[in-house]
Amino acid sequence: MVKLIVNGRALSVDVEPEMPLLWVLRDELKMEGTKYGCGIAQCGACTVLVDGQPVRSCVMPASASAGKKIVTIEGLAGKGLSKVQQAWMDQDVPQCGYCQSGMIMAATALLATKPNPTDADIDAAMTNLCRCGTYARVRKAIHAAAGQPVPPAPAPVEAPNGQKI
Question: How many CA atoms lie within 13 A of 155 on its CB side?
Fold first, then answer.
């Protein structure tokens, strides 16, 4: 039995102590917002906050998170969206969306420690992978969530075939 604090709720789960936190969240607690990407802590799709720090839950044993405050994407905001989630929407960050919960959790941790991040701060903290390549929009969304000015998107240009790009 492992005792966890997930999104403010004290829970006891009957799992093997070495079971990765990711599978406890997804399979045992039915919190499927945290995604499985690689299983080796490289992509960041499984990022959750443990005592405020971004953690790759695919490699963290459930026993290592016992008694710590775990926040998942489901618990990030009370009612409505968090400022990071709202900025994600406002800046049209998601494409396929698979990596987004991990990205949002990492960005939330960054803003908790650096409320006015520079581009260098963002680049250093955001080690999550995005196969769709939305990194520029991620950066803009983090600046927006921090209340920093965000330059407008460039105006579309017309390709030789007449298509707006």
Answer: 2
